[in-house]
Amino acid sequence: MSRLYDTVEPAVIDEEMLKKAVEEQGPKEEAGKIAKQEGIDFGDVLSLRLDFLNILKIDNLWEFTKLTKLQLDNNIIEKIEGLESLVNLVWLDLSFNNIECIDNLETLTKLEDLTLYSNRISTIDNMDTLLNLHVLSLGRNQLTDLENLRYLRRFKNLKTLNLSDNPFCKQEEYKQYVIAFLSNLEFLDYRLIDQQSRDAAIEKYQVSRDEMLHNERQAELKKEEEVKRLQELEKHKNAYVELMNGPDLFEQMYAEDKEGQKLNEMPGLEDQLHSFKEKFMQYCMQIFEFGIGEHEKREEEVKSFWECVEEAKQDNKRLGMKYNEEFTEMKKKMKYIEEFTEMKKKMKYNEEFTEMKKQEVIKEFERNMQDMVGSFVENVQALLSQCRDLENNHHEKMMEIAIVTLEKVIKNELDDEISDDLKMLLVDKDTIINAVSSSHDVHLLKIDNKEDDMVTRINQWLKNMIEQIHQDEEITRNRMRVSEINNLIDHLREEMDNLEVMQN
């Protein structure tokens, strides 16, 4: 099909064009007149046709947030863009345009039917988020690589695919290749895939398919492991002990310690360094295991508290409904004012009792959480203090080994055993002492920073938790319900007072 409007000035989607299209495609007769008079809200439009308008650039569609169907076919569009806000789009037609790349569709996660027929697309990609895709038309494009079709295997819901009139369709193995590697397809190029064709295709490509399935399974396992690792890391972060179950803190001490990296090359240091690292990691592991255990206790305490809060909310709701029903019934029977007054006193007592009980529960929870956080901080600080002691002992031994090494260098006993970088530190006593001390300071700073980070974060968590409890919107709503009931009592009391005056 030839491009239309070749001699017409390219159009841009503007408000006037959109308004005209919506009016023409909207309700007719009286309903249409009313809609036109009241003004059209683009945010309410569900379907829109912008075909055969010589549009060059997609723009100004950001208000159509409820749009589910969009036709932009038979234009001169060169790039897919401007669709980011159309998150409810289910059906999109971009056929008969000049599009070269599939792009900018990431937000259209609800898309089920995508038509890109008759464009200039040479590669199938950039559709990873369109996992709901059922129908895809890429016919009459510039697709030449059959291998590229394997990209479509990720779309498990894809049942209908049109690839006709692409260059690779002339290859003898085209159809069998597609059927073999896109095994979920039901229709290819407008024809139903029968079981005989499917079996023949799978048999032909059995070896390649098996290899592909194996590789996909390995990739899937690797992805699952990565997801699991990230979930574990998130759990460890919530416990404030992330990366403490390995050599991370130890390695951090040396990551920015240039002097220490050189000093570690000193002869006779290997056993000492190994022992230091092993003991240091043992303390880190103790911190990690203790932190995970404490985190589970805190989570259980928080869960129990919010369950109590929810139970109290439901009790308050039931109590409020009960009193409302009683008040309504009393009004119908027109009983004495004393009964209303008594009910109000009863309600006031229950309100005060509920408030008092709630405050006691909150205070108890706060005390428990403060004790838990205090215990966590105290134990972590104690274990990190032992890490510092280890570093201090290591520093003393490093200093001893450094002095001995310096003496050997002065006597030319180690010229062939040490690197040039280390020799630069072993020029005199002051230089080597300063290097060892500098390394020591870096290590202590890393330990201090780790302690500050853990303590600050858990204290901030506690502060946020307490603020959340006191700012609970449901508590405010409960107070409003109580206020409404009290207002109802006062209203009924006025009615009874007026009744008594009339009777007198």
Describe the structure.
It is a single chain. With 504 residues, the chain is mainly α. Helices cover 60% and strands 5% of the residues. It contains twelve helices and ten strands. It has an eight-stranded mixed sheet with strand order 2-4-5-6-7-8-9-10. A two-stranded parallel ribbon has the order 1-3. Helix 3 links the parallel strand 8 and strand 9. Mean pLDDT is 85; it is low at 1-6.
Give a quick summary of the entry.
The protein has helices at residues 15-25, 29-38, 174-181, 195-204, 206-238, 248-255, 258-263, 270-333, 337-410, 420-425, 429-470, 473-503, and strands spanning 11-12, 47-49, 55-57, 69-71, 91-93, 113-115, 135-137, 160-162, 187-188, 191-192.
User: What is the domain total for the residues?
Assistant: 2
Overall structural class, as computed from helix and strand content, comes to: mainly alpha
What is the number of beta strands?
Answer: 10
β content, as a range?
5-15%
Write the layout of secondary structure elements.
Blueprint: E1 11-12, H1 15-25, H2 29-38, E2 47-49, E3 55-57, E4 69-71, E5 91-93, E6 113-115, E7 135-137, E8 160-162, H3 174-181, E9 187-188, E10 191-192, H4 195-204, H5 206-238, H6 248-255, H7 258-263, H8 270-333, H9 337-410, H10 420-425, H11 429-470, H12 473-503
Parallel strand pairs: 1-3, 2-4, 4-5, 5-6, 6-7, 7-8, 8-9
Antiparallel strand pairs: 9-10
